[in-house]
Design a protein that fits this description.
This protein is an all-alpha fold and 101 residues long. 84% of the residues lie in helices and 0% in strands. It has one domain.
């Protein structure tokens, strides 16, 4: 997905939220929404900077990027396998009752 179209959609939603908050809460709501918009802009800039850095590093050293990706995939797979392979609990006999029917 193109980051420009995502940014435009986020901006449109933020504008609608700003108008709605201004109508509901007055000046205090507008100030809160302005602060949220400022923080959203900073987050958007951080995202753009991070993607640019990752793209440049990947172009400069593709094998390192591949090794890092493979290592992260292995680590996530190991965590997933461990989380899904918990053996069933065995309760002591005193809680199960008599095994003879």
């Amino acid at each position: 997905m193109d980051s420009n179209s995502v940014g435009q959609t986020v901006k449109e939603i933020a504008d609608k939220a700003h108008d709605a908050a201004g109508d509901l809460m007055g000046e205090t709501g507008t100030q809160a929404v302005d602060k949220a918009r400022e923080l959203g802009g900073k987050a958007q800039q951080l995202y753009a900077d991070t993607t640019e850095i990752v793209r440049n590093k990947t172009v400069d050293s593709p094998f390192t990027a591949l090794a890092i990706t493979a290592g992260l995939g292995f680590l996530l797979g190991a965590i997933w396998a461990t989380a899904n392979s918990t053996p069933p609990r065995s309760y002591p006999k005193r809680y199960r009752g008599s095994d003879q029917y």
